[in-house]
């Protein structure tokens, strides 16, 4: 029956292990255990289908022990492919428990995909060493990580013979120490008790005791994948050990099934739910016969026959009545089918489905699924940003509306959890209510309805979090778009790269009258996501004197509707980050990395009520400006409601002197007005790039260099033209002279 199963598995389409064990093409097995448990005999029996009598091997072993040399270890052995299912080969590495071979043991454990841990079958002492030494040692060294462990009892034939010998000799040997415990003096009595304890430890376990001890080990050590018994002498189950080792790597049980609860693990259910929704093409919540056949053909290459479909319905309706409906199979029925496969040991069926839809052994989508979209984005400069396309925004709006069950315009915690129920979890900590409530627009902030008195995520807040995720980690945004149901073919159209900020700023001319607020023009920045950093002193942060941020919230994301602000010609997302100024050697909070400054569209410098504070902040602005590209706009913001007129007047004078925009006053103006001005300054950097002495000197040097370069080019052109004309004139003169000579 096993041979028929293996032949069927070899013929099954899509059986190759796509994505298993990191994509390697060979399963490597490390065989470990105490000396004398039968590790080498097991490998020889599985590889050659013969039993090693042990005479020459044991002689060499004994000789090595006497001479102090290393004990013999088999070289890496390839298991024949005719005994293995599938097409993935298995290489077995023998190991030694000797201290001298400790380094080689650790090396093999590190290279292996699965560990076969051997003990002497039925021996209580040998089995006890598994729980007291080997498994703790594997976990302590962390060499195996999450690799599965197979617990194999070797020398199963010894158990039967030993049990028979014990049964035939009970009560027939009066000289046995066990039959005369009171004989001899006290010293002999103590020796007898020690002998009895040793005998009890080495005593053979019956089937019930063995099963009980194995169950305790399985409950305590989650690494154990399966327990087996084998006999190399009888050639019993030896090849099956490595068949199960191959399956433990290609089709591990641990990620799918919780043995304690007897149910599929939550992450497995989430993956199956995503697959169900992808196969549910009409999104009616049922898999019809046509959709089931399409799913079967996609995963296994052959559709189901009518009688097979009827059998599937009967199985589901018998155990899970709500798993079947007139329209087809429900999600509960679909999940139950896979739970039934796993319970019956057919993990390969579920893993074939999971890998066909892109999952790896951790039940996460493989990174290569997003590689094409990331490659299309290509390498981008720090002054470019990644943003979501119009097609991607339409997809996210659709998902928001689908999961807003009560159509109140906000997502409750339960609705948000349901939205990401096809992913392993939330994309990041900012998606929890305690984090996003102070970061993006929620029902409490935006005026929408609250559920149970708690703030909920609005559509603007939902899109803002996605914009922030795309800005920080494009790969995370792409993979979670896949989790939400975006197809792999449409994934390249989900994100795009903005134009280089440096090029857009330089191409745009600086109109007259911008510093004073006059003049209308089209802003040079076409990007949708804008980034602003706010520098505030520790005292200002403690008093909550900042611009659109809070002391305990480092990042805020705002949605700016189209038409709000002078430069907001389209809908924008403004990311405001708060940085503590005054720390670090440069006094700029360490925010002077050139590449990081290139990614910012605006720097806001907060000043308080004293003139000295303003002078310090202006000096800070100049230090930060030197680290930038010279095209970074700045804005001053008066964050103290008690600032005197002298401080405000000095700020106005400084902005006029440096050709910057007028200072912001968030303490007296509305938040929407401040937000509109920030967005306008980000979109139109020419309006507030400070014309410092360093910048003016640099512009003068650049002008001189351009003029000199232009002069050199023009001069070289004139000289080249004169040389060409001279050569043409000389050539014409020579031709005329030759003609005159020929006429003469």
What secondary-structure arrangement, pairings included, does this model have?
Layout: H1 2-11, E1 27-33, H2 39-48, H3 55-67, E2 77-78, E3 90-94, H4 102-111, E4 114-120, H5 124-141, E5 149-154, H6 156-169, H7 186-202, H8 207-220, E6 224-229, H9 238-250, E7 257-258, E8 263-264, H10 266-279, H11 289-300, H12 306-319, E9 324-325, E10 328-329, H13 331-343, H14 347-356, H15 371-377, E11 386-388, H16 390-403, E12 410-411, H17 413-419, H18 433-436, H19 443-446, E13 457-458, H20 459-472, H21 474-483, E14 495-497, H22 501-507, E15 529-536, H23 538-542, E16 555-560, E17 572-580, H24 594-598, E18 602-607, H25 611-627, E19 634-638, H26 645-657, H27 671-683, H28 693-743
Parallel strand pairs: 1-3, 1-4, 4-5, 5-6, 15-17, 15-18, 18-19
Antiparallel strand pairs: 2-3, 7-8, 9-10, 11-14, 12-13, 16-17
Helix pairs in contact: 2-9, 13-14, 20-21
Mind describing the biggest β-sheet?
6 strands, mixed
Q: What's the rounded overall pLDDT mean?
A: 79
Radius of gyration using CA atoms only? 38 Å
Query: Largest sheet, order of strands side by side?
Result: 2-3-1-4-5-6
**Helical segment count:** 28
What does this structure look like?
It is built from 28 helices and 19 strands. β7 and β8 form a beta hairpin. 47% of the residues lie in helices and 11% in strands. α2 packs across α9. The chain has 744 residues and is of the alpha/beta class. The chain has a six-stranded mixed beta sheet, sandwiched between helices.
């Amino acid at each position: 029956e096993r041979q028929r199963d293996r032949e069927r598995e070899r013929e099954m389409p899509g059986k190759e292990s796509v994505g298993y064990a990191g994509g390697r093409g060979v399963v490597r097995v490390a065989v470990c255990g105490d000396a004398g448990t039968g590790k080498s005999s097991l490998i020889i029996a599985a590889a050659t289908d013969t039993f090693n009598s042990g005479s020459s091997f044991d002689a060499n072993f004994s000789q090595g022990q006497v001479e102090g040399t290393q004990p013999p270890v088999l070289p890496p052995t390839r298991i024949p492919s005719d005994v293995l299912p599938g097409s993935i080969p298995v290489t077995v590495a023998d190991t030694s428990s000797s201290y001298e071979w400790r380094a080689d043991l650790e090396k093999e454990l590190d290279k292996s995909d699965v560990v076969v841990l051997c003990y002497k079958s039925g021996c209580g002492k040998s089995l006890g060493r598994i729980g007291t030494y080997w498994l703790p040692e594997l976990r302590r060294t962390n060499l195996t990580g999450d690799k599965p462990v197979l617990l194999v009892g070797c020398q199963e034939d010894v158990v039967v013979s030993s049990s028979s010998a014990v049964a035939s000799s009970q009560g027939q040997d009066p000289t046995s120490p066990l039959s005369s415990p009171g004989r001899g003096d006290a010293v002999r009595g103590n020796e007898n008790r020690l002998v009895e304890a040793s005998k009890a430890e080495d005593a053979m376990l019956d089937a019930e005791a063995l099963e009980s001890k194995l169950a305790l080990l399985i409950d305590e050590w989650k690494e154990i994948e399966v327990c087996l018994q084998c006999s190399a002498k009888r050639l019993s189950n030896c090849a099956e050990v490595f068949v199960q080792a191959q399956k433990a790597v290609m089709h591990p049980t641990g990620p799918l099934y919780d043995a304690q609860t007897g149910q599929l693990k939550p992450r497995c259910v989430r993956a199956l739910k995503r697959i169900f929704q992808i196969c549910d093409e009409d999104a009616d919540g049922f898999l019809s016969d046509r959709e089931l056949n399409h799913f079967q053909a996609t995963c296994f290459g052959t559709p189901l026959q009518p009688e097979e479909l009827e059998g599937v319905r009967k199985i589901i309706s018998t155990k899970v009545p709500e798993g079947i409906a007139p329209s087809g199979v429900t999600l509960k029925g679909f999940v139950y089918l896979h739970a039934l496969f796993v319970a019956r040991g057919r993990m390969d069926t579920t893993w074939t489905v999971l890998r066909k839809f892109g999952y790896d052994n951790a039940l996460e989508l493989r990174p290569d699924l997003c590689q094409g979209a990331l490659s299309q984005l290509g390498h981008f400069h720090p002054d470019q940003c990644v943003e979501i396309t119009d097609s991607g925004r339409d997809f996210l709006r659709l998902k928001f509306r689908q999961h807003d069950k009560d159509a109140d315009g906000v997502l409750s915690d339960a609705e948000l959890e349901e939205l990401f129920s096809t992913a392993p979890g939330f994309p990041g900590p900012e998606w929890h209510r305690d984090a996003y409530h102070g970061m993006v627009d929620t029902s409490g902030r935006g005026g929408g309805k609250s559920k149970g008195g708690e703030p909920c995520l609005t559509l603007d807040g939902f899109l803002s979090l996605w914009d922030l995720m795309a800005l920080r980690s494009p790969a995370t945004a792409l993979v979670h778009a896949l989790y939400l149901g975006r197809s792999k073919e449409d994934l390249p159209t989900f994100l795009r790269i903005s134009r280089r900020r440096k090029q857009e700023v330089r191409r745009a001319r600086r109109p007259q009258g911008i510093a004073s607020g006059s003049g209308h023009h089209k802003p040079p920045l076409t990007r949708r996501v804008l980034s602003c950093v706010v520098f505030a002193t520790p005292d200002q942060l403690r008093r909550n004197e900042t611009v659109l941020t809070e002391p305990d919230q480092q990042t805020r994301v705002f949605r700016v509707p189209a038409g709000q602000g002078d430069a907001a010609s389209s809908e924008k997302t403004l990311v405001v980050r708060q940085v503590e100024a005054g720390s670090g050697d440069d006094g700029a909070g360490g925010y002077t990395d050139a590449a990081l400054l290139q990614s910012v569209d605006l720097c806001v410098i907060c000043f308080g009520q004293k003139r000295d504070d303003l002078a310090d902040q202006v000096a800070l602005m100049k230090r930060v400006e030197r680290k930038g590209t010279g095209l970074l706009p700045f804005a001053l913001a008066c964050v103290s409601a008690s600032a005197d007129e002298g401080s405000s007047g000095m700020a106005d004078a400084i902005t006029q002197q440096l050709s910057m925009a007028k200072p912001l006053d968030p303490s007296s103006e509305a938040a929407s007005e401040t937000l509109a001005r920030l967005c306008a300054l980000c979109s139109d950097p020419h309006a507030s790039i400070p014309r410092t002495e360093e910048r003016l000197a640099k512009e003068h040097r650049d002008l001189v260099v351009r003029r000199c370069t232009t002069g050199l080019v023009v001069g070289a052109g004139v000289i080249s033209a004169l040389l060409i004309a001279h050569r043409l004139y000389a050539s014409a003169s020579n031709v005329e002279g030759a003609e005159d000579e020929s006429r003469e």
